[in-house]
Amino acid sequence: MKIIICSSKEELGRQSAEEGATILRQVLAEQGQASIIVATGASQFDTLAALVAQPDIDWTRVTGFHLDEYLGLPMTHPASFRGYLKERFVDQVPIKDFHYVNGEGLDGSGDVPAECERLSKLIRAQPIDVAFVGIGENGHLAFNDPPADFETEEPYLIVELDEDCRRQQLGEGWFDSLDAVPREAISMSIRQIMKSRHIICSVPDERKAQAVRDVVEGPVTNQVPASILQEHSNARLYLDPPSASLLENRS
Ligand SMILES: N[C@@H]1[C@@H](O)[C@H](O)[C@@H](COP(=O)(O)O)O[C@@H]1O
């Protein structure tokens, strides 16, 4: 895992998006098509804003996959990740296909296992070139809270959200109360994320400093799910000075 400490949050957004765009242009030139994974949350604001502004990416040949979503939240809810991605990404570029995770089940029917199955089938058929992800204050990767399942081969899972994770969502201002934060979600699995050829992980802000230290300098353990990124040969972790502040080795 390569660590890049940027001079500011905005610079982190610019550099991570430029790296992603460079890879995408190259993959499109070589393969004629590309597939990406996109994450949500406050940590992705600058990366996504810079990504949609990148020149010379033929989005009509790119397929996107949604990383994770709360169970039962309608797209109109301010915290809906589908709503977030539609506004900040899908509506901004002429993307070929974007596969949203419907937390209300297959076609909104409430059948969540069927929705996981639908998405799993789609992503199994489509090797991922670049995954844009973040990490949580509790070290989670997507919605795989500790202790994360490092073994399952299922691409999409139903997961329980722990209280730290739910408190983070409340702290970011997406919900009015802790009770309003859903207790379950659909998440892409750790193994599926790790299958991506390139991983671009954007992690700004002081509130992530301890998680960053654990992910970078601690052991690989499912108690710190994103520590698995140490084992990926093409993972890049973009930090700003506050999120890097607890690292012992900052060179
Ligand atoms: N489940 C989301 C992920 O999609 C995101 O990549 C990560 C970082 O989150 P945030 O940007 O809110 O800090 O965890 C969130 O909770």
TrEMBL record:
Question: What region holds the Glucosamine/galactosamine-6-phosphate isomerase domain?
Answer: 8-233
An example GO CC term for this entry is: cytoplasm
Keyword annotations from UniProtKB, A to Z? Hydrolase
Q: Which Pfam families match?
A: Glucosamine_iso (PF01182)
E.C. number: 3.5.99.6
Gene3D superfamilies linked: 3.40.50.1360
In terms of InterPro entries, this protein maps to: Glc/Gal-6P_isomerase, Glucosamine6P_isomerase, NagB/RpiA_transferase-like
What Gene Ontology terms for biological process does this UniProt record contain? Answer: carbohydrate metabolic process; glucosamine catabolic process; N-acetylglucosamine catabolic process; N-acetylneuraminate catabolic process
What GO annotations for molecular function exist for this entry? Answer: glucosamine-6-phosphate deaminase activity; identical protein binding
UniProt cross-references to PANTHER family, sorted A to Z:
GLUCOSAMINE-6-PHOSPHATE ISOMERASE (PTHR11280), GLUCOSAMINE-6-PHOSPHATE ISOMERASE NAGB (PTHR11280:SF6)
Its protein name is: Glucosamine-6-phosphate deaminase 1
The protein's organism comes out as Bythopirellula polymerisocia
